[in-house]
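Dear colleague,

Thank you for sharing your sequence with our group. We've completed the structure prediction you requested, and as agreed, I am returning the results in plain text so they can be pasted directly into your records. Please verify that the sequence below matches your submission; if there's any discrepancy, let me know and we will rerun it promptly.
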Amino acid sequence: MKKKLTLAILLLSCVSGIVHALTAAGSVRQTGVNGYFGADTLRQDPVCNMKVDDKKGDTIHYKGHIFGFCSKGCRASFMKAPDSFLPKKN
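Please find the predicted structure tokens below.
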């Protein structure tokens, strides 16, 4: 019984250490209440500023950026003048 308990504690601490190391290294990020993902999946709709999930919403890759949209209307507005929604350079 003691061996099983010791093994369980050792295994739990190893897994905990791995998760902590990955989170600190930035390779795994916690996004909201959904838990851990390989990358952030929440983006801001550039037209209406609503938060959207890349995995569930409509996205466009444009000039090296990924834009997510909450609706077809916002996507259509973006497509009319996409350069006006690009991030501003400092």
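Summary note from our side: Helices lie at 2-25, 72-80.

Kind regards,
the structure core
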